[in-house]
Amino acid sequence: RRDVLDLVRELGPTIIRYPGGNFMSGYRWEDGVGPVSERPRQLDLAWFSTEPNTFGTNEFIEWCRLAGTEPMLGVNLGTRGPDEARAYLEYCNHPGGTALSDLRAAHGYKEPHAVKFWCLGNEMDGPWQIGQKTATEYGRIARSAARLMKWVDPTIEVSACGSSEPFMPTFGEWEYEVLNHAYEVTDFVSLHIYYKNPYKDVQEFLANADIMDRYIQDTLAVCDAVRAKRRAAKRIMLSFDEWNVWYKAREPRDLALPGWPEAPRLLEEIYDLQDALMVGGALITLLNHADRVKAACLAQLVNVIGPIFTEPGGAAWRQTIFHPFKLVAQHARGTVLRMKIRSTQVETRTAGMIDHVIASAVHDEDRKTVILFMLNRETSKPLEISIALRGLPPISRGSGFQIFGDDLLATNTVQTPDAVQPVPYEDFTIKGDAVLASLRPLSWAMLTLSY
Fold first, then answer.
1. Options 175, 242, 269, 378, the catalytic residue
2. Which one of 123, 175, 269, 378 is the catalytic residue?
3. Over the range 400-432, which residues count as b (16 or more CB within 10 Å of their CB) and which as e?
4. pLDDT digits (tens, 9 = 90+) for 358-386
5. Most buried among 180, 181, 419, 446, by the most CB within 10 A?
6. pLDDT of residue 414
7. Is the pLDDT of residue 328 over 90?
8. Rounded to an integer, what distance in angstroms lies between the CA atom of residue 343 and that of residue 360?
9. Which pLDDT value is given to residue 432?
């Protein structure tokens, strides 16, 4: 669908992960290449559906090129092992002269796909996962797979599975044991989390940005402990390759439908204004850890907990969470600046004491701009913000956008696709290297300052 492709380009993701997700742990890549008419139909045990394999690796690579994004491929370490992972890489990346690379050419793709980022399985600590493993089992298979893959193509980077979320009983122990086995061949540790709203309280909900911050810090502490133990020069980076808000579409009928249907409509979360604020807060947190979080993927893209929603044969529109992601993807280019924030605070059950305001700043030296992303978690009143910029020329002008509204449950629908969208942000004044700004209660704002 061209309308969906246009929305993906507008959204601006720079890397997209395939083939999943839990689906990855039962996937046979060979079944998704070659003539479509010859591809087998098979059961998908992750989502209890029928997979026709009409869309596979080569179609995904072509689609990524059309969308202007980089592919991130995952190998099945649930039901398969290191040699199958090596074969998948060889099919995709080897220039030619072998059975697998020549098979790719026979399928119409003479030039290698040159995929650089590879995931070593998915959520292998989870009891829901096809082929769940202990940390020791997974660490050994991940090490073997990464070794074989890097022998075939030394230019790739690989991500090993971390814990499925920070609330897993083995969190910390899992990462430590996996890296004990696979540190030398691992470039990234993968993090996943989906934020919920169990208290039905917006301030508690938005406190999850602090949970994300601690999750990142704690995972890095484990990675660096293994580094110190091994006296390694290399530092492990993080790939936050599944994260989003997801708490409404979690009923049994949202997770599976009877009869093994093909392409069932599952996990169709409808996002509201407070979800957009939470996604905006998570984006701020990710930016503030850009020194170690080198990849991140909002999960997922279309309909299934996605920023884009469609009706079959009908319209496509932007969900509320589309907007903060788009603004960050478009404008957060350059160098993230360390910020010192002094804010009023509030006590929460979710994350303890939190600041009312969280923020991130990005300096784009080429464009001579500093871009501020700010979230006000104060529920009842605006907050006056004083921003001091040091070491930069005086600010000459500013512009921005903000997301807010009276109805936190407002959603975008086919009838009202723009009910929640960014509006111009003008509540600020510039005085040399200082900016005075006002943030509405429960609002997310982007402010571009030019010098």
1. 242
2. 123
3. bbbbbbeebebbbeeeeeeebebeebebbebee
4. 999 999 999 999 999 999 999 999 999 99
5. 446
6. 96
7. yes
8. 14
9. 81
Q: Which amino acid is at 197?
A: N
Q: Which domains occur in the chain, in start order?
A: 2-334 (3.20.20.80), 336-450 (2.60.40.1180)
Q: Tell me whether residue 165 is one of the annotated catalytic residues.
A: no
Each residue's pLDDT tens digit, 153-197: 999 999 999 999 999 999 999 999 999 999 999 999 999 999 999
365 annotated active-site: no
Residue 20 has pLDDT above 90, yes or no: no
